[in-house]
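FAQ

Q: What does a record look like?
A: Structure on top, sequence underneath. For example:
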């Protein structure tokens, strides 16, 4: 019996050390769409660690908030953070609770990034324990009502976090686009210094976004890539290829914008959308699609100006298109 126990402990120590650190990540919440999202990457071989959930460090609570738990990751700490968020605590309050109630009594090794809603208010908070591996830091901010927290450890330096923030703030498109751009900000050899010999930033990367109506554990958008150690494959570049096949990241123009023969009023939209079509499109079929290109509403273009009932659409980003050639994007409040 003792031999079995020793074997179990040895196995647990191996697994724990394999996933002990999760390096650079970002959480964000959009006050306009009420989407919450998480993205991250690390130089951990998830194949060897036996982890199939590439986005395990990011916990999304639709219409509530997002939590990234990293640095000597413990699922019990993540569960406690989720419970505190469901109780209604703000991000800063959750971090204060976690720092004094660490499962192993050692919050100095942990790192958290949390964003969340309290009614219509949004906030972000970060935490970096003093004994996280260097280089370590976190950074919070907001732009256009989108609040974020960026954090990392075992980093090449502050430039990784600053580059992620710059790319996130200057990205075009929705929350998923900004998160993907943030990861590209860390796309440099040795961003996680353990991957310097691999010639990559990391060994796995993910992006996921939950819309307000999503069920917990089933976000509307989730992609991830994991690679083997010494494969010399940059996971962020691989993730970008998957992302580009599924997602559009053109500028969302909130003003009246003509693009390929379509105007949309208002943008963001409420319960009704007014669409102005080019004369040449009369007689064709228009389709409103979600971010995964799933058709939700269709209709015939019978006149230049038409009103479309969109109140059944959940808050988020949508695209109206005609024959996959003429299209325009809009936000639904």
């Amino acid at each position: 019996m003792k031999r079995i126990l020793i074997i179990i402990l040895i196995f647990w120590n191996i697994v724990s050390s394999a996933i002990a650190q999760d390096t650079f990540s970002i959480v964000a919440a959009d006050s306009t769409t009420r989407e919450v999202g998480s993205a991250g990457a690390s130089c951990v071989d998830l194949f060897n660690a036996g982890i199939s959930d590439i986005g395990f460090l990011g916990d999304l609570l639709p219409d509530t908030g997002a939590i990234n738990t990293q640095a000597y990751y413990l699922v019990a700490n993540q569960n406690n953070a989720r419970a505190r968020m469901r109780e209604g605590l703000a991000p800063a309050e959750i971090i204060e609770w976690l720092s004094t109630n660490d499962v192993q009594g050692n919050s100095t090794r942990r790192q958290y990034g949390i964003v969340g809603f309290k009614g219509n208010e949004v906030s972000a908070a970060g935490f970096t324990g003093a004994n996280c591996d260097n280089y370590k830091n976190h950074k919070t901010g907001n732009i256009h009502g989108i609040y974020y927290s960026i954090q990392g450890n075992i980093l090449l330096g502050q430039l990784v976090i600053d580059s992620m923030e710059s790319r996130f703030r200057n990205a075009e498109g929705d929350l998923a686009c900004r998160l993907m751009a943030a990861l590209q900000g860390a796309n440099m050899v040795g961003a996680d210094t353990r991957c310097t010999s691999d010639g990559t930033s990391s060994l796995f990367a993910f992006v996921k976004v939950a819309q307000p109506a999503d069920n917990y554990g089933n976000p509307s958008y989730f992609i991830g890539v994991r690679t083997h150690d010494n494969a010399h494959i940059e996971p962020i570049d691989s993730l970008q290829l998957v992302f580009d096949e599924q997602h559009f990241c053109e500028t969302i123009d909130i003003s009246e914008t003509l693009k390929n023969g379509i105007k949309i009023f208002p943008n963001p939209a409420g319960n009704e959308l007014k669409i102005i079509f080019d004369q040449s499109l009369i007689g064709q079929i228009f389709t409103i699609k979600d971010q995964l290109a799933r058709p939700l509403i269709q209709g015939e273009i019978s006149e230049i100006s038409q009103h479309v009932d969109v109140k059944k659409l959940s808050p988020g980003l949508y695209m109206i298109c005609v024959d996959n050639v003429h299209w325009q994007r809009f936000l639904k409040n």
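Q: Is there anything notable about this one?
A: The mean pLDDT is 87.
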